[in-house]
Design brief:
The structure is a homodimer of 157-residue chains. Chain A is of the alpha+beta class and 157 residues long. Helix content of chain A is 32%, strand content 30%. In chain A, a hairpin with a 4-residue loop joins β1 and β2. Chain A is globular and about 50 Å long. The termini of chain A are close together. The mean pLDDT of chain A is 93.
Amino acid sequence: MIEAVDIHALERQMREGIPLARAMDLRVLEYDGNRLALVAPLAPNVNDKGCVFGGSMSSLLTLAGWGLINLKLAEAGIAADVFVQDAHLEYLAPLWGELVAEAYADGAPWAAFGAALRAKGKARIAIQAEIAGPEGAGAAARQTARFVAKRPATQAV
Amino acid sequence: MIEAVDIHALERQMREGIPLARAMDLRVLEYDGNRLALVAPLAPNVNDKGCVFGGSMSSLLTLAGWGLINLKLAEAGIAADVFVQDAHLEYLAPLWGELVAEAYADGAPWAAFGAALRAKGKARIAIQAEIAGPEGAGAAARQTARFVAKRPATQAV
């Protein structure tokens, strides 16, 4: 079964299932089939210095990666739970406004990822994600994270 | 000037200055001069699967490290702003209850850190932090992060 990819359903799933995502006021900004962008305003994500809290950056980067994998699995018609395993984060510059996090996979790993998941019930994938800096500047933060997807044990197909 | 170390002031600073820390409902649990432990309940930090959201783990680990450095600087009577620079995170096991994050520095780096900060106005330090797993089990998450502290440019002493 190929499910329609519904970014609004992903946004609802994050906001309704994860209280901190709602507290951050995150929204899905854009999905083009390869990259997922999430956005969140400054006010609920500020720190005591008036710029973006590192924990908000980390959360948005991880949710962008997690969301991207969920959308790609929905496109492929594979039901699986997705968990983050590890992450390397660089906080590169303070950010004094809205957060936009974009996640993508280097190379073209999705077919192999889907095939491994179908064959073994479990597969890993590395996802890159960045938070945009001020216009014209480099990224404010960058993350490389590994995720694992597991098919439900009870699933027959 | 040696300031008294006030963990309640640290808790207020985090909860009043960082809306997401308040949304997580974090509290300072304990500080023994070397280790700072923060605690947060499950309910506001849950994910769509019913266990702790990875972003909450990352935020608590980073705040524990940031808070520890602020307490050690207060003990040494040094005013400085503390920023996280990079982090390596391992999400080791799902956690189905309260989060307790404990931060500490390996070795005894504090005297050298304070001396470098006084001499150069800027210094870096690596902080370990862990989130406890269920009783008898290993850690649920582990982070090694590097922080930078900068003395205010206007400070004369």
